Amino acid sequence: MAAEREYRSTKADPYSEATAEPTSSSSETAEVAAKSSEPEDYNSKCVFCRIAGQQEPGTELLHCENEELVCFRDIKPAAPHHYLVVPKKHIGNCRDLKKDHIELVENMVAVGKTILERNNFNDFKNVRMGFHVPPFCSISHLHLHVLAPVDQLGFFSKWVYRVNSYWFITADYLIEKLRT
User: Fold this and answer.
1) Residue 79 and residue 76: Cα distance in Å, rounded?
2) Which of 44, 70, 133, 138 is 20 to 30 A from 24 (CA-CA)?
3) By the 8 A CB rule, do 74 and 112 touch?
4) d(Cα 121, Cα 178) in Å, to the nearest integer?
């Protein structure tokens, strides 16, 4: 009887047998390893995440005193001063924001104003700051457009950055919506 108990305890479970064969390809393994080393708030396929991580050598980051944000020039400027203020943490777009993101949006606006001042632009009545609303976002990473002077926007740009339209909302409008 003791021998029978010993046999049962040492007999291998057919469902838990290890195999020497790989369960995934080497490319799948590399992909999983790469994903596991990325922080949850980073997306390696997102160009703005790569810019924020300084992995896009062609993009010059402008000095930004807020460590949670980066700022750079728009690659297709609609105005003489057209900057993008982007959180380092990956956030999809303005519809993903909640009430606890109000401070983030306010900080983005403050950085935008600081960048304009550093570039000798101080007429804040002639500035537009806002976000494109999905599905009108070219990049699915939250970014604030800082445009100045607004009176120099071209015909098409006046439509693309039209205040509180279906496709573009101002930062002030977004903050107000998040408060309610």
Assistant:
1) 9
2) 44
3) no
4) 29
